[in-house]
Design a protein that fits this description.
The protein is elongated and about 100 Å long. It has a 4-stranded antiparallel β-sheet. A two-stranded antiparallel ribbon has the order 1-2. Strands 7-8 form a two-stranded antiparallel sheet. The chain starts with a strand and ends in a 7-residue tail after the last strand. The chain contains 3 helices and 8 strands, in the order ββαββααββββ. The chain is α+β, with helices and mostly antiparallel strands.
Amino acid sequence: MRSRSNSQFVVLPGGRDPTQAKMSPAALLLILLFATARSQSAKNPCVNPRGQEGTCINIKQCAELIEMLRNQRNEPGVADFLRASACGFDGRDPKVCCATGPPPKTNITPRVKIPDESECGFTGKTVNEIKVIGGFPAPLGAWPWIVALGYRSKTSPEPRFLCGGALITSGTC
């Protein structure tokens, strides 16, 4: 070894300086191909809103999110999920963090049907006892945000008070 200005040099066999060494075109091509393949396999890793590992790709290449757009776009939370999945643009197309594994199983809650008129307002049980213990009658208007809901039937003009309600506004907070 010889030293020049505190740097160390290695002399190659045949007296060649390593800074003058040349790489064969075939070896250079192999290194470039390997580096390109590596970068393609590790395309922009990301984590989607569910915490799954994914790849940032054009939305047109992400089957899961395309399916969400087509079939679930009006479901609660889908628009927020799609917005949170955005990770850039590919020209005019958005890029999204597309999960690399299968999507997680989700429980789909069926939509609640509005009850028939004949069932609306009924608990299915008859309540005849007073539920307030130790209370006292309140004068009309004492609690203006509380109401008793009365129901009239076709057979009786007098209302039956079956439940109550409360008005909550910023003024009551």
